[in-house]
Amino acid sequence: MTRDTRGDVRGVFVFALLAALAVLSLVIVVVGARAYRSIDRTAETVHTFRTGMSYLIGKVRGADEEGMLEVRSSGEYDMLVLGSVLDDTRYNTYIYFQDGAICEYFAAADRAFDAGYGEEIIPVEALSFTLKDRLLTIALTDDAGTEHVSSVFLTAGGEAEP
Amino acid sequence: MSERPLRPLKKRGAFSPVLWELTIVILFFALSASIVVQLIAAAGSISKESEYHSRALLAIETVAEQTKADPEGDGAFDERNAREFTVESAPDLRVDCVVTRDISPGNGTLYSIELSVTSGDGTEYTLSAARYVTDAEVLP
User: Fold this and answer.
1) Of A14, A24, A18, which Cα lies nearest the Cα of B33?
2) How crowded is residue B43: how many other Cβ atoms within 10 Å of its Cβ?
3) Which of residues 123-162 of A touch B (CB under 8 A)?
4) Domains (ranges, CATH) in chain B?
5) Which parts of chain B sit beneath pLDDT 50?
6) 3-class SS of residue A28
C-alpha cells in the first residue's frame, strides 16, 4: 500500500468516526426529546385529573352535610352547589365548567349566580356532575380527551332542596 | 566531504494521534450515551408507573365509594357472608372487590370492603373501606 493510499484510507476512517459521532449525538438528542415529551404529557395528564379530582372530592367532603349539596343547572351551566353557613348567613360555592376550565364562584346564597365572577381553578376539556341517591359522580375530561370518572358516597348529605 | 550512512525511513504507527483521540472520544461518547439512554428509559418507566398508580388509585376509590353506596349489590353473598366481584375500569385496570357482611353488630350490619388492583408488573394496590348500616336504614 502506497503512502497516498494509506493517507486516503486514514482520511475516510476519520470522517467515518466523526460522522458516527454526529449521527449518534443526533439519535440521543431525538430519543431524549421524545422521551421528555412523553413524560411531560403523562405528567400533565396525571396532574389534571389527579389535582382536579382531589380538589373536587375535597370540596364535596367538606360540604357533606344534609341540605348543603346540590347539582343544579343554570342556563348553560351544570354546576355543583356546595353550601356553608357563616355567622348565620348561608353562602354557596358554585363549581362549574367555563371556557375550558373548572371555575369556582363563592357568594351569599341570596345573590344570583354570575359565572363571570368565577375563578379559574384548573384547565379541563369537560366537567359534569351526577347525583343519584347519595352517590355523586364526577366526570372530568382532560386535555388529551380522556374521561376520568370518580364517585363520592355522601355519608351525611343527600341532594339539597332546589 | 564525509559520507553519512543511509538509514531506513522511520516507520509511522498504523494509528496517528488524531485517530487515537477520536477513538477515545467515541468510546467516551458511547459510555455516556448508554448511561443517558438508561436514564431516559428509567424516567419513562417511572412516569408510566406513576400514571398507572394515579389511575389505579382513582379507580379503586371510585369502586370503594360505589360499593359503600350499595354494599348489598346483587345480594350474591356466599355462606361466609362474602361476595366477590371485579370491575374493569380500563382494559389494563381491573379492580377486585370482596365485600364481607357481618350481621352480628346490634341493630345493624357492618360491611367490610377490601379492594385490590394488580398492575402488569405485579405491583398490588389495596384499599380497605367499611360501612355500617343500621337496621332502620333502608338500602337502595
Assistant:
1) A24
2) 15
3) 133-135, 148-153
4) 17-134 (2.20.130.10)
5) none
6) helix
Question: Can you spell out the DSSP letters for chain B?
Answer: -PPPPP-PPPPPPSS-HHHHHHHHHHHHHHHHHHHHHHHHHHHHHHHHHHHHHHHHHHHHHHHHHHHHH-TTTT----TTSEEEEEEEEETTEEEEEEEEEE--STTEEEEEEEEEEE-TTS-EEEEEEEEEEETTSPP-
Closest CA to B127 of B52, B50, B65, B46: B65
| Bridge partners, residue A44, by sequence | none
Enter the C-alpha cell of residue A59: 370540596
The widest CA-to-CA distance across chain A, in whole angstroms, is 103
Entry pTM: 0.76
Contact: B66, A32; criterion CB under 8 Å: no
Residues 79-108 of A with CB under 8 A from B: none
Residue A161 has pLDDT above 50, yes or no: no
User: For residues A71 and A55, is the Cβ–Cβ distance under 8 A?
Assistant: no
Q: In chain B, which residues have their Cβ closer than 8 Å to the Cβ of A53?
A: 58
| Model confidence at A128: pLDDT above 60 | yes
| Mean pLDDT score, A8-36 | 85
Cell digits of residue A131: 347525583
The dihedrals phi and psi of A42, each to the nearest 5 degrees, come to -60, -45
User: Rounded CA gap, B110 and A64, in Å?
Assistant: 21
Asked if the interface predicted TM-score (ipTM) of this complex is over 0.90, the answer is no
Test A28 with B43 for CB contact under 8 angstroms: no
Task: Indicate the range of A7-11, A44-48, A136-140, A152-156 predicted with least confidence.
Answer: A7-11
Nearest to B69 among A25, A49, A134 (CB): A134
Q: State how far Cα A84 lies from the chain centre.
A: 26
Q: Is residue B51 within 8 angstroms of chain A, CB to CB? A: yes
Residues of B in contact with A20 (CB under 8 A): 26
